[in-house]
User: What shape does this take?
Amino acid sequence: MLLLFDSHIAFLGGGVMGEAIIKSLLRSGAVLPQKITLSEPNVDRRIFVCDRYQVRGCADNADAVRGADIVVLSVKPQVMDRVLPELKGVIKPNALVLSIAAGISIEAMRTGLGGHNSIVRVMPNTPAQIGQGISVWTCTDDVSETQRQQAIAILNAMGEEVFVDDEHYLDMATALSGSGPAYIFLLMEALVDAGVHMGFPRAVSERLVMQTLKGSTEFAIASKLHPAQLRNQVTSPGGTTAAALYELEKGGIRTVIARAVFAAYERSVALGKKQ
Assistant: This one.
C-alpha cells in the first residue's frame, strides 16, 4: 500500500464503481483524501462524492489528470470516445492509466490518448463497494513492475484480483464476474418471491434466502469441493431437493444461464468493436 501513499490519483467518473474504488482506497488507508481528484460532469454527483470522502473535485477532465501519477478511467464505455481526446498530451508520459470501462480495448485507449502506453485494463464488479469484489485485469508490456504493484494494491483494496495475460479474457470476465452480481440478485429475487408465494412474510423470506446464499457460498469456498459434490450432499434420493432440482433441470436452467452469460460476452465484444 505504501506504493500508493504518495501518488496523486485522478478519477474520471464518479459513478457507482468510481466511488467504490475511492471508498476502498480511503478505507484501506492506502491513499489520503487530498491525493485524490475526481472529475465528474454531474454537479450534484460530484458534490456528493467529494463532500462524502473529502476529495478534490472538478468538472474538467484535463484539469483533473494534469500532474497525476495514476489516472483511473471510470466513465461509461459509451462516452470514452469523447473523453480520451480531452486527455491527449495532458497525461504525464510515465503516468499509469487504469480503465474499468467494459469493452474498451487497450489499443482503443492507446490510440485515443495519442500513443500513451502504460495502460491497465480491469473488469471489477459491484461487491467491491464492500471490499468483497473480484477484479480481472491485464496490462501492456510498458507497465513497469512498480506500476503493476500499484494496480494490484488498488484492486486488493476492493477485494481479490486475477491477472490474465491475454486481453480477450476481459470480455469473458465482463460476462461472468462483472455482470455476475445481477444474475445472483435475480436468483435471490426469484427465491424470495417463491417464499412469499408459499406464505412466508417477505421480510422472513428475504432473510432466509440471503443467509442461505451467503452461507452456501462461504461453505463452498471453505470445503474446496466441486459444486456438483456439494449439491449431491444435499440431495437425498426421492427427497424434496431432488424434486426441486428435477424441475430446474427440466426447465433448462443450465442452458438458460449459459446463454445469458454468452449474450453478455457478445455484447462486451460488440462494444469494443464500436470504438
